Amino acid sequence: MARFKVVGVGGGGINAVNSMINAGIKDVEFISIDFAPSTSLASKHITLGSNTEECAKAADEHGEEILCALKDADMVIIVAGIGGTTGTSAAQVVAKCSKKIGAFTFGVVIYPFLCEGDERAERAKNGINDLRNVVDSILVIPSEKLFNNLDKSTSLIDKFKEIDDIIRHGVQSICDIGNGYSFVGADLDMIKAVIGNNKFAYVGIGEAAGNNAPLTAFGEAINSPFIEEQLCEAKGIIVHFIGDASQFNLLELNETVMNIGNYVHPEANIMWTGVLDDAMGDKVRAIVVATSQCRDYE
Ligand SMILES: Nc1nc2c(ncn2[C@@H]2O[C@H](COP(=O)(O)OP(=O)(O)OP(=O)(O)O)[C@@H](O)[C@H]2O)c(=O)[nH]1
Ligand SMILES: [Mg+2]
User: How would CATH label the architecture of 199-293?
Assistant: First the structure.
């Protein structure tokens, strides 16, 4: 089995990690890092213990402790809200430590809502552009794009939870594939080949039931607000299905996977995988992680 370590850095990162722990993601070790003791449910918490202004320096000073926590990992997934102080600066330190031990390093960052202000947005952009230089691949969740389907009862916290769920499903899929649970052969090296090598990744999720559920779920995933128009330029795509065995009709599945190439760049590296879960009932979930070459985040 591959060894996965997921590190939540700062308040947003730790909340996202807590949601994974509450949902019972298996075969993953969780670590959290914040400047103060926190509400983290991770088995290992590192307190940087300085005022937040000195966060980058404090994270550097905890390099040995971070290296020790990451030890033996094959893949390190760093989750942080970007644009604040702790996540933005300490995520880079964690990424450097992860590269140092030779782990495949995947950054997952939550980009702030517009209403959080220009200053935060500017810090977030700079933070992403710095982080992308020290990870193998970076997935940015642009929170602002969740502004469709809003009504007066939607709270900011609801939207944070929605983002946490998307990250959780993405992380669970990567770990399941990497651990060999897919019913079509796949492993961590194949994931690395598709999403690695200095890429920008984006994620979409869809769910459907009934006739042709895999195809409908895939359609919903690629039309999700985080994917949209960029997909045609994607040079890599992983399409992962979760559902009960009865939902994977061979003809339907075949039609769905043969279709993937129509939506991405002609040279795209395409990978599809699936995991059985009878708790899904008559539903199929499709999780799409697509990648394009890294560029400056604007
Ligand atoms: N999905 C999600 N995003 C969050 C959550 N909390 C904060 N964020 C986002 O993450 C960004 C960074 O915020 P925090 O993670 O609280 O900041 P921090 O890294 O702890 O930094 P400081 O508190 O400033 O030291 C925010 O601008 C929000 O957009 C959360 O619970 N879930
Ligand atoms: Mg904080």
Answer: 2-Layer Sandwich (3.30)
The residues near 247 (Cβ < 8 Å, ≥ 6 apart) are: 213, 214, 280, 282, 283, 284
Task: Kindly give the number of the ligand 1 atom that is closest to the alpha carbon of 111.
Answer: 29
Q: Is it true that 4-178 and 199-293 share their CATH fold?
A: no
Residues 6+ apart with CB under 8 A from 266: none
Least distant ligand from the CA of 83: 1
Q: For residue 152, what pLDDT is reported?
A: 81
Q: Domain residue spans in the chain?
A: 4-178, 199-293
How far is C-alpha 106 from the geometric centre of its chain's CA atoms?
8
What is the Å distance from ligand 1's center to 160 Cα? Answer: 9
Residue 58 pLDDT: 87
Domain 4-178 -> CATH class: alpha beta
DSSP conformation letters of 181-210: --SS---HHHHHHHH-SSEEEEEEEEEEES
pLDDT for res 290: 94
Q: Mean pLDDT in runs of 10 for the chain (298 residues)? A: 95 96 94 91 91 79 95 98 95 97 97 94 96 94 81 86 94 94 93 88 94 94 86 94 93 92 94 95 96 82
Pocket test for ligand 1, best of 82, 160, 167 (most atoms within 8 A of CB): 160
pLDDT of residue 146: 80
